[in-house]
Amino acid sequence: MTVSARAARPGELPPPAGPALPPGAAHPRSGVTEEGLARRLKALACTAPLHDLEARKANLAGEYTVYAMAELGLAAIDLVTVTMDFDTGADHEEIVGRLRPRVAAQAPGRDPAEYERVARWVLENLINVGSVDRGFRAVYGMWTREGEYIRRDYDFKLLEEVPGPDGHIFLRATDEAINVLVGALDTDVTSAQIAADVKLDHLIRRGRLAEARFAAEQARYRTVQYAESLRRALDATRRNVRAVDWLRAVPDLIDEAFDHVADRYRHENAILINIRRARDEAEESERKRGAAELVDIVQDCIRRHTQLQTRLMEAGPLFRAEQDRQAFAAPSTRTGLDLYGQLLRPLLELPVGDARRVTDRFFAAGTGLRTPVAVRLHDLTEMLLTPPAPRDHLGAELPEPDVSLTPDDSRYSERQHDAAALLLDIPPETPRRLSGLLAEAREADPDLGYLVALLAFHAASPPVGTALRQGDRTLLVAVDDGTELDDPEVGGADLIIGTAVLTGARPEPEGPTPG
Amino acid sequence: MNHDTAADAAPITSADVGDAARLVAFGLQPKLLPARDAEYADLIRRHREDPRFAALAAAVAAGLGLVVLEVSPRAGMAVTAGEDSVFAVRMGDYARRAGTESADRFLHGLAHLAVAAMAFPRPEDLADDAYVGRLSVHGVDAFVRQACRRLEERAELRGEISDPEVDGPSLEAAWRVYARRSATGATKDARRLAASTVGIVAKAVAFLVDSGFLQRVSDDGGGTYRTTARYQLQVRDTAGSAAMSELLELGVVAVTDGSPSLLAAAVDGELVPGAGLPFHGV
């Protein structure tokens, strides 16, 4: 037995070079295998919530068996991961909204409210809203090195809710979720990134677009994960310089990340050129579309690198500023209790049963006092006997607003404005002279001439920027070609008025989408 | 007021006792400051000038089961509840779940400790009477989470298995309990999720505001607060040392020479050398 084999060698030094194992160690109960087994069990457990979605859909009230819940669950994690940014996560509603088309596609022709309900159900189950921790727990067992079999709890989350800076709640995919999603269970971030790169490059050269797309997406998830670890370190530094190892860990992380960004820049630009070529040369429309999507993904990757790089450049100054603020403040001659170093941190390492004794003491001594509230029996009876006030769902009645009519002091009526607009609705190909317009206007209404003239003058300096921003298609433009206006009412130039057609109202995304 | 007539030989009258009790009564209203109430300020002055009156006030407080931390114009009559006093706050009254659920009980207590640690991050801050701490609800949560993450990373580095045994929930490492509790959560009525860590910290902070220990500054970061002199006294003189002695009893901090000063725990090779930081690493 392994147990006895180990017990028989208590005085022996551990073998100097790792895997020189004693004969019994190859036995399944040896520590190394057990850890590997535990790791695989944990990885397997991470997928359980997805299977659970499938299993429990039958219990829902309604015909929900038609939906592929595991697919929806994975898609939801996917959406959250892609939407995750350096600072924020994904919004609940946004994820539900983006998940809905997929839900609808699975069971066409049903009530849209049902799609919404299904999308929400999937999302809530991935958060596990019902549990106190909003997470999942799996039990796994393993042999210890002493030969004792112990069952342990493994707690994990797939989607977690985090507070945003403005009080909003965001969703972020956890490391576990990202690992499950990309299928690379228990791998190192950096090495996985390199592997994905090589694979991507290779696939594109061989023209395997579908697989290249998969690899590119994988690369993007890894990038997000990278940014996430940096964000945590910087956040922690801002709060407490002590909490982060700025001597080794963070500088290493920053150096690594800088190399990574530089490397990825070169790499992705090269890939971009490759895929663009593939896109432009592709004959098949399906292939063309695939390449175009890949362009989008790689562009998104590049955008994320830029963001990461900006943060990296800010990291050094941030550390120095925080160090000044936190460490070099005028030292006091007296010293007190180091609440963090002496109390909070050692306490967090204790088993919760012991730690609770300390926090209980702190609570009892640290909350101050409360003057006890004595209940008057008289008040209590009255309160208990009072019928509950009927709750009005509509709230208090709004007072009727006292509105006084402002006198209509506009010079021209609504009808006159309409007439002027009609008159100035000139076809783009045929500009007209102001004099002609004025004559026509006065024919209809003697007052209209002045209004048309005003509108024409306004068109002499048209608000092009505003029109572009609003996405207007056309714009009234007046041009002075030097001809004098001969008119009894208005003077100046006899403007040429025409309609300009605005093109490129919005900047088109780079490269038209083929197909 | 009759304190100006107080002579050494004059016997203590019932009016004196009444005034002393009045001063203690002011002390029981922690949000009230001497600067805002002329009568309170008068009594504080009398307390300083008349030792017999001071002794009388101390006796009244002790009789009520109160501990006097400080009597000064800045903090007022800072009193706190003795351990078995009727004024003491019980965990079961504080949070319903905390009475029964041991994890919740721990988290509520930890939230109070974390607020104090965030309010007075360095030892000097706690010692310096002029120091005013600032903290935010989200900041406290993130601060504890970071500490938990460091411990998690360290456990991983050492190859420790931090997953608790199924049969021994009280043997689970404390940091894990905090780390696995959700930080926040969407609720149907857009209120804070009470059982989330942000909800628990927010509750602690709101309670401390009612105790006159914190003052709300703004809504940033889930609510930003600054400390009062009374809070500093409470943490420094009562809570900190009480928790420390409990920790010592558990044998966590070894005070080698038996001196009463609380020395930094032995730093297990995590000192950040040459980094210019007067602190040891986490």
From TrEMBL, chain A:
Parts forming coiled coils: 268-295
Identification of the protein by name: Uncharacterized protein
Source species of the chain: Embleya hyalina
Composition bias, Pro residues: 12-22
Alphabetical UniProt keywords: Coiled coil
Region (Disordered): 1-33, 388-410
Biased composition, class Low complexity, residue ranges: 1-11
Source taxon at top rank: Bacteria
High-level lineage: Bacteria, Bacillati, Actinomycetota, Actinomycetes, Kitasatosporales
Automatic annotation (TrEMBL), chain B:
Annotated TM spans: 53-71
KW Transmembrane (keyword) present: yes
Source superkingdom: Bacteria
Keywords: Membrane, Transmembrane, Transmembrane helix
Protein name, as recorded: Uncharacterized protein
